[in-house]
Specification:
single chain, 64 residues, alpha+beta, OB fold (Dihydrolipoamide Acetyltransferase, E2P), two-stranded antiparallel ribbon, 2 strands
Length: 64
């Protein structure tokens, strides 16, 4: 099943590259989300915004 939805980023920026491989194989995002399944490259407007993000251990702690 194909579906489309908006993607929200935690920081403001400009998309400078999109992963064309997802067009041919959308399932790649589920199989390799930390590898070949990346969605886009974002040029961040303000790098200081990254300071407000949680790291992996903080997220694990939050969700238990």
């Amino acid at each position: 099943m194909k579906a489309a939805s908006d993607i929200y980023a935690p920081v403001k920026g400009t998309v400078v590259e999109a992963n064309k491989a997802l067009e041919a194989d959308p399932g790649l995002i589920n199989r390799e989300p930390h590898g070949q399944g990346w969605i886009f490259v974002l040029k961040i407007d303000n790098a200081d915004d990254l300071k407000n993000l949680k790291d992996a251990s903080a997220y694990k702690k939050q969700i238990g």
